[in-house]
Amino acid sequence: MKRAPLRQRANELLNTPLGRWLRRAPAEAPTMPDYAPHLFKLAYIAVGDPDSAAVLAADVIALQSNARVADEAAALHLLVKLLPEGWLSWPGAAGPGEWLRLRLRREEADRLLSVLGEWDVPARVALGLWLSAGVRRDDLDGWLGTQGMADRVSEFVGYIGEGLDLIPPLGERPACADVAADLLDAHEPQVGRMVRLHTLGCEACRKRVDGLQATVGLLRVALNTFFRAPMPSDLARLVLLRQRQMRQPPVAVWKPLVIAAVLLLLFVGVVRKPAATAAPAPPPSNAAQLLDRALNRFVNGAQNPGVLHERMRMFSSQGNFAIERWHDYSGARRFRVTVQQDDNPLPLLDVTSDGYQQIAYEVNAGESQTQRVLVRNPDMQKLMPLVRQLPTVGSFGAALVPQQYLDLNLLASARRGKPMLLGTTHWQGRTAYTVVSTSDTGERLILTLDQETLSLVEGRIAATVGSGGSARSVWQAEVIEVLGRRDVPPTVFQLQTQQVAAAMPNPRQIANTATPTIDLAAAIRSSIVAVPESLPEQSMLAYIRDSSLVRTSTMQFYEGQWSTLAVEAPRFAEPLRRRPLEQSFAHGKYTEVEHNVNQTTILVFAMDRAPERRMRLYLWHALLDDAERTALSRSILDSLVLVDAQNVEQFHRRFMDLTVSDASAEAQLLGSLPVRTRSINPRRRFGRLKADQALARFEGVPVADHSLLP
Question: What was the pLDDT predicted at 19?
């Protein structure tokens, strides 16, 4: 399809009043498929203007409706076939608001927009599908019917990053060349494992990984900035118009064609062998591969379309909890999770999201401790992997439920141990895998995973090998099913409507009230700030805040998919300590603190340039064992840079202000319910208390305010 005919059709359709076209139209327009907003967004990214994108999206939906097909993958294949060879009305330049949102100079923003327009159209669709819908790069060809799109996207990210001086050169060692092609996948649990091990000892590649991730974040913001126009409200009527215009030709034209087609099909049916049935998906080759797939099941999606519904029960010494999830496997990726404790009529947590830019959540923890919040913000999209992990929040998150026996933590524990795939079994008529994993202490973890959805069916903990005793159940599924979208109750993904302004949350601190954040320039005026150039993984959210209560320190937070990194720095010089720092790193001395916080490393350190300021580094990582996490913590220490007036601009882009929403990002609070100003439940402070006590024992001073939580 040439661009001129599409431009002409767009102008004709959109400049003519729809009422004239639809005089004899039904009173109600057709129902739009769930993926319509995402289809429009991808068409918008492809052609550059919303009017032409609306016509393209309407054509795809109309053709699918005529063919009685409502599959998103088929819609994307059809979109690629209908795309023009060049852009239609590509924007000529970025506006001032877009420069500010991208934090680029005018010429940089214009160049980025121009390069996007110069790229070929299917590749822009692939970029949008990867960044906006969360489709893995290796799966882009399957979604779009193309070839080599993963490599093209990788090359484009490198080109943009190097052009904007975000990506430093590759390391010069032979090993650097071996991992160069995989640096963009450094944070993938399985593919990126060798890359992460390499970057522990290679600063050049570590900086290049950080630059690649910074470029990916910039491109994600750019797509939401340059192509921010919403889907037209009358798209359904436009689809109806396109259906009417696609009516079949007169009988005199198509009757001979039908006769010829029937004869051809009869001939083919005689000479052709019966079609082979589709081969089932190959089973995992080992337990580690199965666990990696299960940990990322909401990221990678499922082969069959539909909505996953699962209801689980978790058993712990602090009570029994019911957890119910709904996850839309389509590009919409709608999501809902509720958590309820036995004998409590109100849910502790109820989170609903459209998978794109809206999240509504309710938190109940006793009298006068209820939050009902709705957030609308394009930046929420990159935080959706953290939202889908709820109620798992890590060691330093605001935990509404005990964390140890949640499904993600059980899967991560099995992955860190020595897992072994025993084979298949059956549960409620469904095929499931059985995995046994043994930890370094000899404790055995027995997991059963549903074959189709990779949901955790059952989790049991057995006594140490050789000690005898039966296995104890800590997780049990009650319902696991994949429903058609029409079978899902309409209220499941419904967002509330009563709204009052509020701040955008950190999903792992969702049970806490919003804490004011400060920018990097303000932080260095009141405190010493050491910023890590190397992060545990891609940072989905980074911000700086004052510590709670006495506000005697500043805290940097970096949230990754499987990690939380916090760096705390005091505002004032602290008194002489009883215990010296025993080990050295590139810029000072440090000591590791012994504690009982799960999957966490705590280091107390001082920089050579500020020996009187004892700072602290906290690292939680779900997938690394103790040795790997300690090595990663030390490499982060080596990458620390003291921020001053000369280099503050270099680092300020990485931090987000959670308390201020821009004109296109509305964050809203539901209802006029009382909002708590302190922790919901005493057990939520348990992890922090243990860390405080460990620090106090190390320092030989009374427990102070070393809190990680607001």
Answer: 42
With CA atoms as reference, report the closest residue to 691 among 593, 624, 555, 571: 593
Same domain? For 113 and 211 the reply is yes
Residue-wise pLDDT for 150-161, tens only, equals 888 888 888 888
| 88 pLDDT more than 60 | no
* 661 inside domain: yes
- CA-based radius of gyration for the chain: 27
User: What torsion, rounded to 10 degrees, do the Cα atoms 415, 460, 339, 309 define?
Assistant: 80
Residue 256 CA to residue 498 CA, distance in Å, equals: 60
Q: What is the pLDDT of residues 189-243, one digit of tens each?
A: 666 778 888 888 888 888 888 889 889 989 988 888 888 888 887 787 787 777 7
Relative orientation angle of helices 203-226 and 106-118, to the nearest 10 degrees:
80
Tell which of 455, 487, 519 closes a domain: 487
Q: Which residues pair with 462 in a beta bridge?
A: 444
Token pair in block for residue 679: 């922790």
Q: What is the pLDDT of residue 665?
A: 40
Q: Report how far residue 45's alpha carbon sits from residue 117's, in angstroms, rounded to the nearest whole number.
A: 9
Specify whether 480 is located in the same domain as 510.
no
Alpha-carbon distance of 420 to 425, in angstroms, equals 15
Residue 256 falls inside a structural domain: no
pLDDT at position 531 is: 94
Out of 54-63, 539-548, 660-669, 670-679, pick the least confident. Answer: 670-679
Return d(Cα 12, Cα 391) in angstroms, integer: 51
Residue closest to 620 by CA, chosen among 599, 589, 642, 637: 599
Q: Contact at 8 Å (CB) between 602 and 593? A: yes
Is the domain of 542 the same as that of 453? no
CB 408 within 8 A of CB 562: no
642 with 669, same domain: the answer is: yes
On whether residue 476 sits in a domain, the answer given is: yes
Q: Is residue 455 part of a domain?
A: yes
Q: What one-letter code names the amino acid at 206? A: R
Residues 531 and 647 in one domain: yes
Residues 481 and 509 in one domain: no
- Is residue 532 within 8 Å of residue 378, measured between CB atoms? no
Give the end of a domain, one of 487, 517, 537. Answer: 487
Rounded CA gap, 385 and 297, in Å? Answer: 11
DSSP of 403-445, one letter per residue? STTSHHHHHHHHHHSEEEEEEEEEETTEEEEEEEEE-TT--EE
- Planar angle of CA 599, 602, 606, nearest 5 degrees: 160
- CATH number of the domain that residue 450 is part of: 2.50.20.10
Q: Which domain holds residue 85?
A: 3-226
Residue 667 has pLDDT above 60, yes or no: no
Residues 654, 535: contact at Cβ < 8 Å?
no
Secondary structure (3-state) at 324: strand
Strand 517-518 and strand 335-341: pairing?
Answer: unpaired
Residues 291 and 440 in one domain: yes
522 and 441 within one domain: no
* Helix orientation angle between 149-163 and 203-226, rounded to the nearest 10 degrees: 100
How many structural domains does the chain have?
Answer: 3
Most confident of the following: 126-140, 262-276, 488-502 = 126-140
Per-residue tokens: 95 = 């506006």
pLDDT tier for residue 662 given thresholds of 50, 70 and 90: very low
Q: Encoding tokens for residue 197?
A: 């091990």
Q: For 27-69, how does the pLDDT look when each residue is reduced to its tens digit (9 = 90+)?
A: 455 677 777 888 888 888 888 878 888 888 888 888 877 666 5
